[in-house]
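User: These chains co-purify. Model them together.
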Amino acid sequence: MTYFPQITQRLLTGGITITLVACVSYWILSLISPNLALDLSLDQYLNNILHGDFGQSQFYHQPNLEIIFEKLPATFELVIITSFIVALFALPLGLYTAIAPRQKLARGIMAFSLLGISVPVFLTGSLMVYLFAVELNWLPAFGRGEVVRVGSWSSGLFTVSGWQHIVMPATALSLTLLPLFLRLIRAELIQVMHSNPVRLAQAMGITPWRIWLSYGLRNATLPMITMASLQFGTLMAYTLVAETLFQWPGVGSLFMQGIIRGDGPLVAAYLVLVSIMFLLFNSLTDLAYGLFNPHLAPWRQQTQQTRQGTP
Amino acid sequence: MNAAKYHGHHVWRRFRRQQLWRQLKANKTAFVSAIILLTLGVLAILTPWISPFDPTNMQQQNIMDAELPPFWQPGNESRFLLGTDGLGRDLLSSILYGLKNSLWIGFWAVLLQFTLGTSLGLCAGYFGGWADRIIMSLADFQLTFSSLMLAILVLAITRAAMGAHDYHIWSPWLLVLVLGLADWPQYARTLRASVLAEKHKDYIAAAQVLGYKSRHIMVFHILPNTLSPLLVIATLQIAHVILAEAALSFLGIGMPYANPSLGGLMGAGFEYMLSGIWWIALLPGLALLTLLLSINLVADWLRDALDPKNLGQRP
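Assistant: Joint model of the two components:
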């Protein structure tokens, strides 16, 4: 029960944040569709949200929550595949460029990453569309392809057409995000490799592989999780751009369409839902901290403090 | 009696002493990219005079000239060196104007970030106490949001609230404001750390004893000695702001279509690309890539040159 105050605190701050966001989104609703806001007072709006009623879209004439949850699987699958590709390449490449920074290949990788930082996702995407969809006609340029319904989740990962459609958006996104993570992992690992414990391990004759993996990589996990949580917004922003480019039927393009159509209720509901997701993600990263470093575990902090208090 | 004169090694003095210049000449990549960047900057400044057409002038565009290819492709017209876009505007002129707009927004937004971040960071570091606590928790709060996502949300909602027409009258200024206000914590955090290291040194004590006001000490004594990392951040941020502006314009919530920007041109050109007309989207993209790459390379060099220990971290 020691971690009870932690959870209460988190719930409290989360609740306050979401209430604030809901107030802001009500204000935005009143800016975009003033006539709707006249019929709905702020406390009614907050009350509705508390009961899971996010209003009706002016364009679709359906509940916002349904529309957003219908589009959510597309975004989620894109993000998952992208993160998978990024993790698959960023970790080994970051490790390699940190261990052997002077090798030709490592320098090449770093130069590529500098290029990657400078290329916006929509340029990579446009190039790929032109090359693979228009000229070579290998891959479809837009959309999500055939989807299979698994319960209420519509998945594109069970059909060939679905995979064909996800290849380009996911690759374009990962080419943009990979250099960012690669450079961060490398910077972090270089610092760790010059730290005292690693030098001691080297002096003790522990094999290089073991030093790299269990001393280097393991100590670099924490900053990487911090990074991931800080880059969550960036990931969302780039996903939004990629969704617009590839006409991917996800939440990001739904939001942009809502903006262009002046669909106030939908935009307001999107804001509230996104902030809830943001808070959930932050809590998850805090839990992950605890997993990788028991000192920082939320359920340990109470004992930590008492231990510090008693000599 | 400017105490800073006798201490530290601030950037302009090093440049005057030609250390930086020599380092720049020694590094070929940085030298070439600095020259490219300089050329692009000069082109951007001279745009109104050197560009063959004025893309903001509706009278110069003719829909009959639309979708003409660049000069190395069959079917080109020599009037339009890089071809035309879907409305018959000369692409070369549009790219030049877009370059100008991108650099303009990058410059003002970064100036705003720099001023805001620097003053807050100086205050936080120098005064300490509650000022420090408030400013730094604000910075931490701001850092949890991605500036690009924040800009997308704010600008998109402003556009929806104002309507497309009214929005595009104000959008250049809104871009500067939003991108300028979003990224100050990086400067503030870096500067605060350097101020904390600097403020207990003897020359500050000397300045305090001489009776200088806090503001004077902060701006003329501490700031010159802590400027180097800030300059690196500012250079990187110019690239970041230009990238963000391009992304916003690509989404249709940045610069108006009538006032071309590189991202906006790409966004408009993308629909033509599916029918094989690639130059409207890809040529502005190439210009954007060159600009961003040269800024990033110069920033990379600047970081190594100003910080021999290479402690600065890329955001």
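The first helix of chain B runs from residue 11 to 16.
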